[in-house]
Write a structure and sequence with these properties.
By secondary structure, the chain is α/β, with parallel strands linked by helices. Helix content is about 35%, strand content about 15%. Strands 7-6-5-8-9 form a five-stranded parallel sheet, with no helix packed on it. A four-stranded parallel sheet has the order 2-1-3-4, sandwiched between helices. The chain binds phosphoric acid mono(formamide)ester.
Length: about 300
């Protein structure tokens, strides 16, 4: 039985197969419409979510399966003190596969150790968000035609942003990737990530102003400031509008640069950018459904 805790759980060859499958699902949805008949997906979300939970549910329904779950720890028996280990043993009696989001780093891993069904980490604290990374990689591969040979800027809350951490980890396996990390000093990418980049001799530069690197970027990955992970509101208020991507900044970028964002957006991308053909964050949401369909099929070992 296989779980997904980290994007690195799949080799790059396995990811290619997953993305090929996702692209085939996109082109031929009817072919897969009954693939998961009789199967159930449990969504156990101890933290808020719109995209991840609903895209998992949409993915399973699109495969002809069924869904059950909870979207709030307070409405589950976690509120009475039940451990994640006990909960997953119970969920294993009700469902065939489980997507779990939890505010504590490592909680889905603890669940996987006790689980009788595949567990997918749907985001654990400030640590990893592997299915967002699969979404990001599929979006880049589908729209740019390659994974590798580009300069990517990651902008915003690089300290707490688990989507940024997961994406950097995943991209270092592809050739000739150059990183710009664009953040205020307080929200710099953690040392364990820059240490890993130095060890692998991967080129990165940390800058504070978006304008310093905008003309060099092939991809810009915007992130919101993660209010829920700050220790005090004062720091959040000071930093929340540090970056606002707008039309004048987009005018500095390459004509074929793509703007991605895992969403939700707060203020960091002005709505005036949404109509720019380079803004692909809503297309990215759609790729998130296809890649989760491919992931469910892969972990349940269902061939169509
Ligand atoms: N991208 C993402 O994880 O969004 P949600 O928090 O809405 O699931």
């Amino acid at each position: 039985m296989r779980h997904l805790m980290n994007p690195l759980d799949f080799t790059t060859e396995e990811l290619d197969s997953l993305f090929d499958l996702a692209n085939d699902i996109e082109k031929n949805p009817a072919k897969y419409a009954h693939a998961c008949e009789g199967k159930k997906l449990a969504t156990c979300f101890y933290e808020p979510s719109t995209r991840t939970r609903l895209s998992f549910e949409s993915a399973m329904l699109g495969l002809g399966g069924q869904v059950l779950g909870f979207s709030d720890a307070g409405s589950s028996s976690a509120a009475k003190g039940e451990s994640v280990s006990d909960t997953i043993r119970v969920i294993s009696c009700y469902a065939d596969i489980c997507a779990m989001r939890h505010p504590k780093e490592g909680a889905p891993m603890v669940a996987a150790e006790r689980s009788g069904i595949p567990v997918i980490n749907a985001g654990d604290g400030g640590h990893q968000h592997p299915t967002q990374t699969l979404t990001d990689l599929l979006t880049i591969r589908s729209l740019k035609g390659r994974l590798g040979n580009f300069t990517i800027g990651l902008c915003g809350d690089l300290k707490f942003g688990r989507t940024a951490h997961s994406l950097i980890n995943a991209l270092v396996r592809y050739p000739n990737i150059h990183f710009y990390f664009i953040s205020p000093p307080e929200l710099r990418v953690p040392d364990y990530i820059t240490d890993m980049l130095k060890e692998k001799k991967i080129v990165y530069k940390e800058v504070i102003r978006l304008e310093e690197c905008m003309p060099m970027l092939d991809l810009l990955y915007m992130t919101r400031v993660q209010r829920e992970r700050f220790f005090n509101e004062e720091d959040y208020v000071r930093l929340k509008d540090f970056y606002i991507l707008n039309k004048p900044k987009m005018a500095m970028a390459k004509k074929d640069m793509l703007v991605l964002h895992p969403l939700p957006r707060v203020n960091e991308i002005s709505v005036e950018v949404d109509d720019d053909p380079r803004a692909v964050y809503f297309k990215q949401v759609q790729y998130g459904v296809y890649v989760r369909m491919a992931l469910i099929l892969t972990l349940l070992e269902i061939q169509v």
